[in-house]
Amino acid sequence: MFRTGLVLAALSLSAALAALGLSGRAALADAYSQVVDNSTRGRFEAPGWGTSSWNDGRYGKDYRYARPAREARPARYRVKIPATGYYTVYARWPADRGYNAGTRIGVSAAGGLRWVRVDQQRNGDRWNRLGVFRMKAGDRFYIRVSRRAGGGKYVIADAVKVVRGRVGGSGGSGITGYDILEEARSWLGVPYKYGGESREGVDCSGLTMKVYERFGIELPRTAHDQYYSGPGRKVSRSELRRGYLVFGHADGGSGIEHVGILTGDGRMIHAPAPGTVVRYDDVPARWYNIVGVKRIVPPR
User: Fold this and answer.
1) What distance, in Å, lies between the first and last C-alpha atoms of the chain?
2) How many angstroms separate the CA atoms of 232 and 237, rounded?
3) What domains does the chain contain, in order, with CATH numbers?
4) Phi/psi-derived region of residue 171, left when phi > 0, alpha when psi is between -120 and 50, beta in every other case
């Protein structure tokens, strides 16, 4: 009877996978994840950091802590990325009011080191989604916790997790405005270049195209086409939410000649004009007439 039950369970699983268009082997190959704790042998290093088991919200037997310091070495996690592609990265820490509210966690993505700022006074004893990153295959120190943080409260390094593919945050699925904004921030300081599509130089629609492209979302090349024929849906001009695209005209006209990425706090990240760099600006700016807003991914 027990053997029969196992066979039926296996058949049910195979049927479910077949309904999704997946073979058992393909599904198992895609279902990759790895957890690295601060006590995982050979996969964690934190020179000069202390060790504690005081906070019960920790993952495993203990965690590492350190005071902020500009020149001190970070805590680093070595993870295995089996194949180049998109991975969702999480971090876990015990929370306390004595910990830092602006801890910086870096992820070595295919396009360079990406930084995410987290509040370690909150959301303890749970996996906190840092975002989706395109990562190159390898087995090395991909994730780090920096001691370069404001104030004097402790920075915590506990555990990290990588999961193959794009995994949504709590209450949703897929990419969110947090991911879009974090990628957009990585372009700050890149010089404006008309027709540019790289970190050597980029224009307004080239910036939005490249930011969304990182998450597998294809936008048309021009601001006009991104608004009228690109993916997503048009929303009210009052919905200035994180990760949404804002379209406008620099001279107060009604046509589409410019696009930026909203930050959700009354600003946008954009490539303004020749002689400038990718930067923050207020929305609406005195020189910028908002023509439309578009939602492509949920804000959170």
Assistant:
1) 48
2) 15
3) 31-167 (2.60.120.260), 178-295 (3.90.1720.10)
4) left
Instruction: Evaluate whether 114 touches 133 at the Cβ level (below 8 Å).
Output: yes
Whole-angstrom distance, CA of residue 184 vs CA of residue 119 = 20
How far apart are the C-alpha atoms of 168 and 215, rounded to whole Å? 12
Angle of helix 204-213 versus helix 177-185 axis, rounded to 10: 120
Catalytic residue among 185, 242, 270, 294: 270
Strands (E), 119-208: 128-135, 138-145, 155-157, 159-164, 197-198, 201-202
∠22-25-26 over CA atoms, to 5°? Answer: 45
Tell me the per-residue pLDDT of 43-90, one tens digit each, with 9 for 90 and over.
Answer: 999 999 999 999 999 999 999 999 999 889 999 999 999 999 989 899
State pLDDT tens for residues 94-106. 999 999 999 999 9
Question: How many Å is the maximal CA-CA distance in the chain?
Answer: 77
Element (H, E) at 183: helix 177-185
Active-site entry in 163, 202, 204, 246? 204
224 is catalytic: no
**Cα 95 versus chain centre, distance:** 21
Number of other residues whose CB lies within 10 A of the CB of residue 225: 13
What's the rounded mean pLDDT across residues 22-26? Answer: 42
The answer to whether residue 204 is catalytic is: yes
Q: What are phi and psi of 205, to 5 degrees?
A: -80, -25
Band (pLDDT 50/70/90 cuts) for residue 3 is very low
| Tokens 């209450």 -> residue | 171
**Among 77-86, 139-148, 245-254, 261-270, where is mean pLDDT lowest?**
245-254
Which is catalytic among the residues 258, 268, 272, 293? 258
258 is known as an active-site residue: yes
Dihedrals phi, psi of 12, to nearest 5 degrees: -65, -40
